[in-house]
Amino acid sequence: MAVIEFRALTKKFGQNAAVNNLTAEVEQGRITGFFGPNGAGKSTALRCVLGLASPTSGEALIDGVHYREIKDPLRKVGAVLDSGGFNHGMTGRTSLKIVAATAGIKDARIEEVLDLVELTQAADRRTKGYSLGMKQRLSLAVALLGDPEIFVLDEPSNGLDPIGIAWLRGFLRKLADEGRSILVSSHQLAEMQHTVDDVMIINYGKLIAEGPIADVAKGRSLEEAFLQLVMPK
After folding, report:
1. 33-52 pLDDT per residue, tens
2. Which CATH number characterizes residue 154's domain?
3. I need a labelling partner for 220 at 20 to 30 A (CA). Which of 53, 69, 179, 208 fits?
4. What is the full DSSP assignment across 109-142?
5. Mean pLDDT score across all residues of the chain
6. Of 81, 53, 84, 56, residue with least CA distance to 67
7. Is the Cα dihedral 146, 181, 33, 65 positive or negative?
8. Residues 123-128: what's their mean pLDDT?
9. What is the C-alpha to C-alpha distance for residues 178 and 162, in angstroms, rounded to an integer?
10. Among 133, 33, 152, 32, CA closest to 83
11. How far is CA 202 from CA 3, 10, 22, 205, 208, in A?
12. How many domains are contained in the chain?
């Protein structure tokens, strides 16, 4: 069953199409890797999914509806788009409390997500002192607050060291094994090969490959398959 659908999604900025007639699906309980070169349109497509950008034509749906129609979005969709959006004068715990309060989430859940992302010991430090990897973990904690069924993650491994990347791989797999659905954009192709179930590859805003990773890779590494698909012949 598809939980995220792109239906002929097009997003133009002036005459330039950042996303061009994208039709693809993310299946329930699976990790779908969303790949493409810089400027391919990945982030724009994700912003359309989350209602942060309006399509020029077509649509992006979550469980058959637009994001703005979801009554309690934090409990339905967890998102990581930008780890730099925190108030640097606040602690990690306070940042989570503010988000939780807006959604009616109890403080006990804050302690749970801090433990899940292994940030408990740094929770009372101001975020201006966080490394990029710690900010990424705090962003994941925000995404987890509502215990959602669906995750939309844009470069969640950015700033993580090799240990952190290995941790993220296991973390995402655990979520999928619980029946949750994950759409994750990343440039870490070698790592994503060991993480994702399905693949969507776009170039110049257009879908050029989609399906289970084995079908797309066809015996090659994910990186080799990606380069052969996007590099000019």
Report:
1. 999 999 999 999 999 999 99
2. 3.40.50.300
3. 179
4. HHHHHHHHTT-GGGTTSBGGG--HHHHHHHHHHH
5. 93
6. 53
7. negative
8. 94
9. 25
10. 133
11. 19, 13, 9, 6, 5
12. 1
Q: Are 63 and 25 in contact (CB under 8 A)?
A: no
Q: Residue with structure tokens 């309060």?
A: 101
| Of the candidates 19, 10, 3, the residue with the CA atom closest to the CA atom of residue 58 | 10
Amino acid at site 118: E
Nearest to 184 by CA among 62, 81, 52, 53: 81
Give the position of tokens 């962003």. 139
DSSP state of 221: -
Residue 137, CA distances (Å) to 92, 127, 165 in order: 10, 11, 11
- 55 near 96, Cβ under 8 Å? no
In the chain, what is the greatest distance between 2 CA atoms, to the nearest angstrom? 55
Token digits of residue 76: 């339905």
**Which amino acid is residue 23, in one-letter code?**
T
* Chain-centre distance for alpha carbon 7: 19
As given in the structure block, the two tokens for residue 144 are 């987890």
Place of tokens 């101001």: 126
Domain containing 196 equals 2-230
The encoded tokens of residue 180 equal: 């949750």
Neighbours of 190 (CB within 10 A): 10
